[in-house]
Design a protein that fits this description.
The chain has 11 helices and 7 strands. By secondary structure, it is α/β, with parallel strands linked by helices. α3 crosses α5 and α3 crosses α6.
Length: about 270
Amino acid sequence: MTRSFFSRLLRQPAPLLCALCLAAPIHAIAADAYDAAVAHPGRSAADLKRDPLDHPADILRLTGIKPGMRVADVLAGDGYYSELVGYVVGRKGTVLMINNLAFDHWSEGPLQARLASGRLGNVQHETLDLNYMNLAPRSLDAVLLVKVYHDLYWVDSEGVWPKIDTGGVLDQLARALKPGGVLLLVDHSAKPGTGNTAATTLHRIDERYAIKDFESHGFKVVAKSDLLRRPDDAREQISFRGPMLGKTDRFVVVFRKTEKTLLFRKTPK
């Protein structure tokens, strides 16, 4: 970039300058690495149908994930993002595709097809109890939580979904990330001020609550995106079925692990 570019940038109004900084990728990496992952031959028809709704290249570009990194896709479901990240990190990188038993069951079929014949050689599928993931300290460069963070607060009266210590899970992820590691959070928006109360009824969560939750566990917001916003979503209906399927307002936040991970949990307000 030229000196004149930076001169023009610095003359921009403060709110615009802030927005430009938040929208910028965390690492300088060729944009086509993410586009190439989406265009990779052999991706399923179901994945290709999902791409226009999720804009995965643009979302992953915010994280700065690059070749050789070790990334955890937590509650990855059938592995849509795991496969894409696998192409980005390449042969020298690794993707931990983490599910619990319930997510494995719900993803049965598409999950097995994705992993069949070892087609994703750098993706390791693991079925774990989220309360005891036993991730090695400072072993991860990045973590993905895509449309599943609210499930950490889901209370299931039928007993299909296990009770999860949400604070404990966030502590585990913070410890497993290297200093400066990033965490991508994408989730269905609940109405402002509802905290985590819509997690059970609507499978949504309040963005402000989510940010404070992660900040209380040693994370700092470094990027946001409005790419998945849907202003027409009244945030009153369940997110994963019926008329809102694929039509919810979603917030996108990238966090960076601070140098000192908090050891004691704080409850977000």
